[in-house]
What does this fold into?
Amino acid sequence: MPKHHQKAQSPGGSQRQLRVGEIVRHAVAELLSQGGVHDPVLEGHLITVPEVRMSPDLKLATVYVMPLGGRDTDVVLKALAANKPFIRTAVARRVNLKFAPDLRFRIDERFDEAERIEKLLRTPGVQKDLQQDSDET
It folds into this structure.
């Protein structure tokens, strides 16, 4: 295909990937928040689902999760993995797709990264540089 006919891919994927990812995210978040998965670990944790990334063929969904407070992440991931077939079936019922996407659960580390950057910005060396930049303008 000539270059002028190629569509530019956004960082999160195509528009369809983003839309389907958001639909799957809502379905998983609703399922977890309403106690639809009968697992003592999952029932004992409040889990947020900030993002779902879909593969280009929409057959794989990477579900990013974060337990409230960021504690017990390994235990929560194991519980989600153990209940993956049930969650996949429940999501398939809520989402109208040709194929039920396979779910892959990952911990969302954006919060940790944002905190690390915030701490870095508060270091004396960076504060000094920022102060010098504001004095020059």
